[in-house]
Amino acid sequence: MPNPLAADADTIVAVATAPGRGGVGVVRISGVALDALLPALCDRPIEPRRAVHCRFLEQDGSAIDEGIALYFRAPASFTGEDVVELQGHGGPVVMDMLVRRVMALGARLARPGEFSERAFLNGKLDLVQAEAVADLIAADTEAAARGAMRSLQGEFSKRVQSLTDALVSLRVQVESVLDFPDEDVGEAENTGPLIARLDSLLAAFEALHASVRQGVVLREGIRVAIAGPPNAGKSRLLNALSGQETAIVTEVAGTTRDVLRETIQLGGVPIHIVDTAGLRDSDDLIEAEGMRRARVEIKRADCVLLVVDSQRERGKEARELITQEFAVCAQEGRLTLVLNKADLSGLSAGERSGPVSIQVVSAATGAGLDALREHLIARAKGNGGSAAEFSGRRRHLSALDAAAAHIARAKLNAQRQGPELLAEELRQAQRELGAISGVFTTEDLLGEIFSTFCIGK
User: Fold this and answer.
1) What are the Cα distances from residue 209, in Å, to 188, 264, 329, 380, 389?
2) Which residue of 103, 357, 368, 414 could cross-link 361, Cys pair, CB 3.0 to 4.6 Å?
3) Phi-psi bin for 227: left (phi > 0), alpha (psi -120 to 50), beta?
4) 85: which residues sit within 8 A by CB, 6+ positions away?
């Protein structure tokens, strides 16, 4: 039987449901002129935008499966092309047979994320919305799912577009001075109002940056390292926070020699907790390697819980307990001092004020752990403790940082250099902003983004 698809057609196919067995499985097809493919695949006519129950056919006319066929004709589809979804029985063998049949009819297997990539390239989604599709699928919490949905619905994109519009308006004013130097073009000649507009732009960038950072936390969570001297109760604290007997707890110092990891959900945010080896002088090669790994995790962590035995260290000031090893963490605002074993020292559990945040707990009895959990939630959500508005990625933060840097340099140029360099900085700022939504992008960036998606999405 001749190939029903045109020779230049680039039609893709993939299983759109998760691997494994299920009641329903979906095979998705996207391309051009799928009208030609459907008669060879289905035993009855398939009308656009109507669910049709039919049999899915092999080349010899025998049935592979039966189910529902949905046909979305371009451009009213997810990808902007003709799209067909075959909903059959969700067995891996049946799904594979359907995919191979469609490939025999001229399609090729889709790359990871290629359906979403085509939606972006065909103007059905901007890049932020396309990324939100993957974030919605990968969401580990309700808050992450809601944030991804808000991004998918365009809330993040609207904020970016608002900044872009303000930049374009400012560029029009500045570049009019260059194009018509002898004309009176208003405020671009007067640095006072111009500086005020640039300051307003910088404030808007800062506000969006804070929102995106919260979106990144919502999506990725924060890394929390439990560190400190041996026998301070670090492993027991990990077990108490996670609710799992992850770490071995004994009275022998140096029990933990490797890095132990657990992820918990607090306030809708993933908290990735790492228990590390106790830090002390030791000639033991294995223990020394554990301490080396501990120091790596301490450097990477967004928050470091320095756990000390409050019974052993009672009477010491907080500044005495923060050793040189943790001084940098304290300076960077990443350190929380945890006075453990409050049940033995007689200290009152809860939060205390000090040069760094101080949490008094008993990992053995659970006293003070609720306050510690609230502290970690506040750390994750920033000082304001507000929930994220939408999902975000680190590349968005980098683009906003770069754009804001151009605005800051534009402000300096407005004060010192004149309109030529000012105009160029504004143009570069707009370009960086456009990289977020995909207005300005590269094939390498698109390949990197969409390669992380599921096949079939």
Assistant:
1) 27, 26, 23, 15, 12
2) 368
3) beta
4) 16, 26, 27, 28, 29, 69, 70, 72
| 196-201, Cβ contacts within 8 angstroms, sequence gap of 24 or more | 197/166, 197/170, 198/170, 198/407, 198/410, 198/411, 198/414, 199/411, 200/166, 201/163, 201/166, 201/167, 201/170, 201/407
Distance in angstroms (rounded) separating the CA atoms of residues 249 and 441: 51
Given pLDDT bands bounded at 50, 70 and 90, which one contains residue 418? low
Of the two residues 247 and 334, the one the predictor is more confident about is 334
According to DSSP, the β-strands at 108-109 and 52-57 are unpaired
Rounded Cα–Cα distance for residues 201 and 167 (Å):
8
Domains along the chain with CATH numbers: 12-110 (3.30.1360.120), 142-218+393-450 (1.20.120.430), 221-381 (3.40.50.300)
Cβ contact 354:332 at 8 Å = no
Q: What is the pLDDT of residue 256?
A: 60
The b/e string for 328-355 (b: 16+ C-beta within 10 A; e otherwise) is ebbeeebbbbbbbbbbbbebebebeeee
Backbone angles phi, psi at 258, to 5 degrees: -125, -175
Residue range 4-18, pLDDT digits in tens: 544 345 999 999 998
Query: Over the stretch 142-151, which tens digit does the pLDDT of each residue have?
Result: 888 889 999 9
Angle at which helix 234-242 crosses helix 369-381, to 10 degrees, equals 80
Tokens of 299: 């450097």
Residue type, 49: R
Residue 338: per-residue pLDDT: 93
In angstroms, the first-to-last Cα distance of the chain is 30
Mean pLDDT over residues 410-430, rounded? 82
The region that residue 348 occupies, defined by phi over 0 for left and psi between -120 and 50 for alpha, beta otherwise, is beta
Q: Which helix or strand (DSSP H or E) is residue 436 part of? A: helix 419-437
Phi, psi of 140 (to 5 degrees): -95, -15
